[in-house]
Design a protein that fits this description.
By secondary structure, the protein is α/β, with parallel strands linked by helices. Helix content is about 30%, strand content about 25%. Strands 5-9-4-1-2-3-10 form a seven-stranded parallel sheet, with helices on both faces. Strands 12-11-13-14-15 form a five-stranded parallel sheet. It binds flavin-adenine dinucleotide (FAD).
Length: about 325
């Protein structure tokens, strides 16, 4: 086991990579080992300096035309080869959609374990203790990996990035041949995307099955605009009604805005698991016994078709100073 040494981080999302470096540097300090960032892509040289400024002691850079677009096989194979050569003891991978697809494949190739969506990481007796929410967010599981490298995936905005400092580090260009991809993108089409990713929104006004028609979302959009936020939705509006392609909740986006306004959402555990880290939750529901009311900080029992426009009109007046 002692042949494994060092903490590594990888994410194709540059912001998340910096957050991983923030946590990684704490773990590396505790273990008294180096912190390494893995940078992959076609032309990525100019990005290495930023990773060093944010905590990396070393950057392994794999630059290859096969890595220009994210395909799972080339990325997984390149990282697997690098890990096999250098044997880090800990590998943190950003829990993006791509990272979540890559981490278990990597763990299988390396014959090790992988704990997904960790929200706490610590070192106990030289081992990485990985904590994650289970049972729809009702319990926290603490897990350790008996073999190395110990792989954990980490969602965005769980850990803080370090301040950028004038640091020095080593950039190592690595010559690795990634595997060819078994798939090819033949066409890309834009979907109706929100202005800001919902996970990054400071204010979210979300609708559920209480909203009767898609056009009625305009009243939620109106409130969101006044509050400088954006709209969101529960899963049935995407899966059953096909109004949207994404949703908030356990199986969708996990959000942590300053303000979450749930309109016509019952608040069953699968939805609440994705919003429980919001700073303030306001629920507007006509059922005085809806489960959302148990987690809401402010409750309005009433018809969203009356409450939401009334709220918008009061807020608009207040903001105009009228
Ligand atoms: C494995 C699994 C994963 C899942 N993951 C997710 C997930 O990630 N996210 C998610 O959202 N769901 C998820 N679900 C679905 C989840 O179980 C619920 O079915 C869903 O969240 C309910 O959505 P809703 O609150 O919009 O609808 P409903 O439960 O039907 O609630 C509608 C609410 O609107 C209220 N209402 C109706 N009319 C009005 C009105 N005019 N004014 C005010 N209030 C009104 C009602 O009182 C009710 O409380 C998952 C389910 C499974 C099995």
């Amino acid at each position: 086991m002692s042949e494994f040494q060092g903490v590594w981080v990888f994410s194709e999302s540059r912001d998340l990579m910096l957050e991983l470096l923030g946590k990684g540097s704490e773990l590396a300090k505790k273990l008294r080992v180096e912190l390494t960032a893995v940078l992959m892509g076609r032309n990525v040289k100019d990005q290495a300096g930023r990773l060093i400024e944010h905590g990396a002691d070393k950057v392994y850079m794999v630059a290859d035309p096969a890595l220009e677009r994210f395909y799972i096989e080339p990325y997984t194979s390149a990282l697997a080869q690098l890990v096999q050569q250098h044997k880090p003891e800990i590998l943190l991978i950003g829990s993006t959609r791509r990272g979540r697809a890559m981490a278990p494949r990597l763990a299988t190739r390396l014959e090790t374990g992988c704990v997904p969506d960790c929200t706490e990481l610590s070192i106990e007796d030289g081992r990485l203790v990985m904590s994650r929410m289970v049972y729809g967010g009702n319990a926290l599981a603490k897990e350790i990996c008996r073999v190395k490298p110990q792989i954990a995936t980490v969602p965005p905005r769980v850990f803080q990035k370090l301040e950028s400092r004038g640091r020095k580090g080593q950039v190592v260009e690595v010559d690795i041949k990634p595997e060819k991809s078994g798939t090819e993108v033949v066409e890309t089409r834009e979907i109706e995307a929100a202005k800001v990713k919902v996970e990054e929104a400071k204010v979210i006004v979300a609708g559920g099955r209480g909203v009767e028609k898609k056009e009625d979302f305009r009243i939620l959009e109106d409130l969101a605009e006044i509050l400088g936020g954006q709209i969101g939705n529960s899963r049935p509006l995407a899966e059953d009604r096909k109004w949207f392609t994404e949703w908030i909740g356990l199986s969708g986006h996990k959000v942590r805005p300053m303000l979450y306004v749930a309109c016509g959402i019952s608040g069953v555990i699968q939805h609440v698991a994705g919003i429980r880290d919001s700073q303030v939750i306001v629920a507007i529901n006509k059922d005085a016994e809806a489960p959302i009311l148990e987690v809401a900080d402010y409750i309005v029992v009433g018809d969203l078709y009356e409450i939401v426009p009334a709220l918008s009109s009061v807020l608009r007046r207040l903001l105009k100073g009228g």
